[in-house]
Amino acid sequence: MGACKGHAPKPVPEILQQHFNARDIHLKPETMAGFAKAWHEKLPSETMPSAALRLPFCHTVFAEAYGAVINYGNWRQGPRVTGSSPAIDKLPLLTEFQALKNTALVDRRPVVLKAIQLLATESLKPTLVLEGPFTLLTQVLGMEMVLRGYKKEPEAVHALLAELTSDLIAYALEAETAGIESISFADPLAANALLGPRVFSGLVLPHLRVLSTALHDIQERGIAVSVCPVLKADSDCFLTCKPSCESLDTRPLF
């Protein structure tokens, strides 16, 4: 995500590495909030003071909740998707996806929401980093399976994206209640240049329109919403949202 803007993730200060566990900052709300606050206080004001107040610190929270296998990494490399369990390699897609979702053992969404609440009680309102439904679906199933499924079972893939979009909206609303100050949204694998106009307009755009309406409503209630400039340029459904900037961008912490 940082590559979209030409930024490299900032290394975690060694003093914070000594006081926090690299795994716990993703799994325990108190540690997640404490780490965000500690790094926020360490950053000089001229170098993106709100950088550490973007939660979660990765783009794997939703994928894990839908059954993807996550390697939580270390201080050098954060969480990443390493596979699905069980591996999905056949159709029908809806049946396979439901089986995968039912295998999910960890759901870190409540962890993120609790961390937001903890920070909000200290007047440190963070930004919720939100990935789009197409990127999430490809994290769980793989790009090849999603595109093959769209060719053979378009209704099934649309149904999956609609389900994910609904869950993302519900999550954003919960984060609003928990005390976020802003939302930073991107769907990096849904780029028009990557998928082509036919797939982008036929598969991705309908669900982005639904999500953008919900984000617009949240924005009307005073929550700032920023969108990846690539995504904003690809579609007309984020006209009221500002493009991501230096202080409010679409990058995870790692």
Describe the overall structure:
The structure is a single chain. The model is unreliable at 1-7, 45-49 and 244-252 (pLDDT under 50). This protein has 13 helices and seven strands. It has a five-stranded parallel beta sheet with strand order 1-4-5-6-7. The chain has a two-stranded antiparallel ribbon with strand order 2-3. With 254 residues, it is α/β, with parallel strands linked by helices. Helix 4 packs across helix 7 (109-120). It is 52% helix and 11% strand.
Please give the count of helices.
13
Q: Going across the major beta sheet, what is the strand order?
A: 1-4-5-6-7
**β-sheet strand percentage:** 5-15%
Radius of gyration from the alpha-carbon trace, in angstroms: 18 Å
- State the helical fraction: 40-55%
> What is the total tally of β strands?
7
Mean of pLDDT = 82
Give the distance, in angstroms, between the N- and C-terminal Cα atoms.
10 Å
Let me know the largest β-sheet.
5 strands, parallel
Shape: globular
Quaternary structure type? single chain
Strand/helix succession:
HHHHEHEEHHEHHHEHHEHE
Structural class: alpha/beta
Name the poorly predicted regions. Answer: 1-7, 45-49, 244-252
SSE inventory with pairings:
Elements lengths: L1 H4 L8 H6 L4 H4 L1 H14 L11 E2 L5 H5 L2 E4 L8 E5 L8 H9 L7 H12 L6 E5 L1 H9 L1 H10 L1 H25 L3 E5 L5 H4 L1 H24 L3 E4 L1 H6 L7 E2 L11
Parallel strand pairs: 1-4, 4-5, 5-6, 6-7
Antiparallel strand pairs: 2-3
Concise overview:
The chain has 254 residues and is α/β, with parallel strands linked by helices. The chain has helices at residues 2-5, 14-19, 24-27, 29-42, 61-65, 93-101, 109-120, 133-141, 143-152, 154-178, 192-195, 197-220, 229-234, and strands spanning 54-55, 68-71, 80-84, 127-131, 182-186, 224-227, 242-243.
